[in-house]
């Protein structure tokens, strides 16, 4: 991951230092400095979601075909668990690979919730936050359209609540899973292994959330397929939940930064 939060990259810090609560005033940046960030976020988000959507489509369609061939109407538990693991791994691996590629170009955010958390802790300016979110949302739409066009059959990657879970529960599940992802990004020191750990975090979060909510944790991930296939009446939870998770993660990060100097003096 990049070492320079003032350039809009994912923040890193040394636990042996006494970190400030917030980043110092950020230097002015001309618009031309923002072009690589916008392009990097668009391409990185597109490739991340393209690979994740393709993997999800393959997992769902192959399980459905296998089920139809056996003349059964429901997936057995082994098929269902294997499908969930496949989908979770597709998202986690795709994120790890693309964060590794684009971290030093745009910060490798790929998620409006992550971008919001960086804005809240003062790691990026509002201008960068706004155009990065725009790039991520447009990339999500493009990824969904491309996967829908390339792979046969309807696009099965829209995030939907499992019938047994309420909207309120789905909202808070999205919030806590997003908070876990944000905490990993904000707190974990930078290094070659950080993209892998971020991908692993998303993999674990997907294992916990994909069955009940579709495991969004990312408004761009839900918005793109919804543009292609249609919006659910509760689509708002895939914006509010991750936003609350971003705020919760940022609050926890800032709280830990306040306590770190006290710990260092002990």
From TrEMBL:
It holds the Pfam family MIP. GO terms for molecular function: water channel activity. This is Aquaporin-1. Residues 1-27 are annotated as: Disordered. It is a multi-pass membrane protein. Its main location: membrane. It is found in: Membrane. The keyword Transmembrane applies. The lineage of its organism: Eukaryota, Fungi, Dikarya, Ascomycota, Pezizomycotina. Gene3D superfamilies: Glycerol uptake facilitator protein (1.20.1080.10). GO terms for cellular component: plasma membrane. Belongs to the MIP/aquaporin (TC 1.A.8) family. The chain crosses the membrane at residues 42-63, 84-103, 109-127, 134-151, 171-189, 196-214, 234-256. The keyword Transmembrane helix applies. Keywords: Membrane, Transmembrane, Transmembrane helix, Transport.
